Amino acid sequence: MAKAIEVTPTWRDQANKTSTNTLYVPNGLTLAQMQEGLVAAAVLLDEVSGAVMEGMGYNVDVDISALTGNGGTSTADVEDIGAFQFRTADGRPVNVNVPAIIDTLSIAGSDALDQADTDIAAFISMFEDGLATTGGTIQPTDVDEDDIVSVIYAREEVRNSGSRG
To answer: What span, in angstroms and rounded, lies between the C-alpha atoms of 42 and 37?
Structure first.
């Protein structure tokens, strides 16, 4: 059975305190149905709350049970990240971090990731050239939907595991 999609409205009160709650909707809706339904739900929620609704987001779980290499390694450390910075067509930077980057993907004696490595090159290509799927090419973008077109750097960094990125 598919897992329901979790929807999280964020609220702010007169004292500038925030709160969230969780709603669930059936999995299998199209993005257009999600957008239309959540806007309609926001209107109704707004009518019964005295707080300001600042946003409503949702996460969709993806079935990754078919991953064959998803066993982790005995040396995996989520604080060792692969830090990638890309540039959009409009020149804006986009940062993407990969937790527990595999140590052997770094160039010996430096923090640079080996962009000639097959796996690193394929990862970078996904952002620069898009990801070919049966439904068409999915081109990663920034928050303004500007296409990502080039990599600026790819390096290994250490980040506190509580950090987002």
So the answer is: 9
Kindly state the DSSP code that residue 110 receives in the 8-state scheme: S
| Residue whose token pair is 């707080």 | 51
**DSSP element (H, E) containing 54:** strand 52-59
Residue spans of the domains in the chain: they are: 5-59, 80-158
pLDDT digits (tens, 9 = 90+) for 61-100: 777 888 877 777 777 888 899 999 999 999 999 999 999 8
Q: Which two tokens stand for residue 156?
A: 């290994």
Q: What is the DSSP letter of 113?
A: B
pTM of the model: 0.71
3-state DSSP call for residue 124? Answer: helix
The predicted-structure confidence for 9-65, as pLDDT tens digits, reads as follows 999 998 999 999 888 888 888 888 988 989 998 998 888 888 999 989 888 777 788
Give the whole-angstrom CA distance, residue 129 versus residue 133.
Answer: 12
Q: Residue 95's beta-bridge partner residues?
A: 85
Task: Look up tokens 């090159």; give the residue.
Answer: 121
Q: Which sign does the torsion angle of CA 64, 65, 69, 74 carry?
A: positive
- DSSP single-letter state for residue 141: B
What length does the chain have? 165
